[in-house]
Specification:
249 residues; alpha/beta; 9 helices
Length: 249
């Protein structure tokens, strides 16, 4: 829905189509559905590094008769974009599981030590507009500050609570999330986190809504339980998130 809203808002404001560049097309089901619904002349260039996902994506594009609007490239997005002008709008639901190392159940979901490594790389590319999915357990305030430092204003966002799933509940990952909470890099309750669709723009003099989103993210937290090696709750963790996070905005 975030991408569909982005397209409709752009067309209402500008009356013209624009190009989307997709980091991580996956199986392409989501964007195929969006393109069929909006019925506009939006052009999408999706990049997918995983071979099986790329072949599924290509099949889905053909099945939806979108070959003229949805182009796919198999390979590493950042390598493919080297030397290519950053034009249009970059969209992505990047990997954001935080862990000290990629030795987790699904390594391709690893987003670096704080979960925001891929998102930071994407923002630093300098696209005029960027739409990313971000998690409240993956250093979200640091990412907002990073975007602002790169000349972006947060112009639109939507957030909803999500229950921890199998991969974010993996003991190694969840312990790290709880440790990050003590330093203001993670904001979660015992069983949920916020998933945010955030749109940034370098265009015009748009008002920045980063502080507004930061307040919501900070509110989605509570003192957490320390998880020992088996992943079961144990003693209390002293959480001082509010003070640490308040320094960011």
């Amino acid at each position: 829905m975030c991408v569909e809203d982005l397209i409709r808002r752009h067309e209402r404001a500008n009356g013209s189509a624009f190009k989307l560049v997709e980091l991580g097309a996956g199986t392409a089901k989501t964007i195929c559905g969006v393109l069929r619904r909006v019925g506009s002349s939006i052009q999408v260039h999706g990049f997918e590094i995983d071979g099986a996902s790329f072949h599924s994506a290509r099949t889905n594009v053909v099945d939806h008769a979108l070959e003229d609007r949805y182009r796919l490239t198999h390979g590493d997005f950042f390598e493919a974009m080297e030397g290519v002008p950053a034009q249009g709008c970059l969209i992505s639901n990047p990997p954001y599981l935080p862990s000290p190392d990629p030795q987790i159940r699904l390594p391709h979901l690893w987003g670096g030590e704080h979960g925001d490594h891929i998102s930071r790389k994407a923002i630093a590319m300098g696209f005029p507009r960027v739409l990313l999915m971000l998690s409240s357990f993956a250093n979200p305030l640091g990412l907002l500050r990073w975007a602002r430092a790169h000349g972006y204003a947060l112009v639109h966002w939507v957030a909803r609570p999500i229950e921890f799933g199998d991969y974010s509940s993996e003991p190694k990952v969840r312990r790290h999330i709880d440790e990050m909470a003590a330093t203001g890099r993670s904001f979660v309750t015992e069983d949920s986190y916020l998933l945010v669709g955030a749109t940034w723009s370098k265009e015009g003099a748009a008002a920045d809504r980063s502080a507004e989103l930061a307040r919501l993210i900070r509110s989605h937290s509570q003192p957490l339980q320390r998880r020992p090696e088996d992943g079961r709750p144990g003693g209390r963790v002293a959480v001082r998130r509010a003070a640490a996070a308040a320094e960011l905005f």
